[in-house]
Amino acid sequence: MTVSYRNRKGEVYFLSRIPTKRGRFRYHFAKQEKPNPVLKIPAGYEIYEHPNGQVFLRKKEAESFTREQIIKIRGICDRFLDPSNYILNIQNQKLEIYIAQLATQQQEGTLTIEIQPDQAEIDSFVSKDVFDPVFRLSQTRSKNRTHYTIEKYYEDELPKHWLVVDNSANLASLLRKQLQKYRRYMQSYSKFQMDPDKREN
User: Fold this and answer.
1) Which of 28, 39, 85, 171 is a good FRET partner for 165, with 20 to 30 A between their CA atoms?
2) CA atoms 110, 111, 113, 114: torsion sign
3) How far apart are CA 44 and CA 60, in angstroms?
4) Which residues, in sequence order, are bridge partners of residue 57?
5) 56: nearest Cα among 95, 15, 20
6) How many helices (H) and strands (E) would you count in the chain?
7) CA–CA separation, 117 vs 120, rounded Å?
């Protein structure tokens, strides 16, 4: 039976291998079964699902964050974000926090964000289909000490890029500080969008 995988959107992907000009193979997931199906995941590889649902086969990565660390990070995120509105993604030895895009609608020729200043309302008016990278955590270990760095993704600036915004030996404090800033920003931004007088100035 062909290796298959169902992503978070309920879409099923099938794994096949495509011959290259050098006589090798590259692996590819598609929504329909293709020639040269793969019946077993190759040794040293794993299935990887991107936060937005795309499915890939990649080489297994060495463990960068322990299960205990991930549980701790998720617990902190749950205090500031609706659990259904963010996804933790580990890639290239770093842990990324993807957050759901804000739902928008077109009204009278202007783009209006459909959110209220209350955080619960903000969480209820987001798109669960598209998630954007917002924060990225990395860590360095020396002797018995672990040091954490947090980066923020700047999507509106070209080229899009990650920028280090803080670092600390205290993971909980570091993450809480940035999530608090993010929530305050979202609340103030929603108030601005809801106030037509401010938008006109």
Assistant:
1) 85
2) positive
3) 6
4) 47
5) 15
6) 4, 12
7) 9
**Cβ(31)–Cβ(16) below 8 Å:** no
Amino acid 180 reads: Q
Residue 125 pLDDT exceeds 80: no
> What mean pLDDT do residues 19-25 have?
88
Instruction: Phi first, then psi: give them for residue 160, nearest 5 degrees.
Output: -60, 140
Please say whether the beta carbons of 58 and 68 come within 8 A: no
DSSP 56-69: EEEEPPPP-S-HHH
* In contact, 129 and 116? CB cutoff 8 Å: no
Q: How confident is the model at residue 128 (pLDDT cuts 50, 70, 90)?
A: low
What angle in degrees, to the nearest 10, is found between the helix axes of 171-194 and 67-80? 30
Q: Return the pLDDT at 137.
A: 98
Is the peptide bond preceding residue 159 cis, with omega within 30 degrees of 0? yes
**Residue 119, both tokens:** 């955080």
Q: What is the pLDDT of residues 41-50, one digit of tens each?
A: 999 999 999 9
Range 6-32 burial, b when 16+ CB lie within 10 A, else e = ebeeeeebbbbbeeeeeeeeebbbeee
Residues 9 and 74: their CA atoms lie apart, in Å, by: 21
The answer to whether residues 137 and 148 touch, using CB atoms and an 8 Å cutoff, is yes
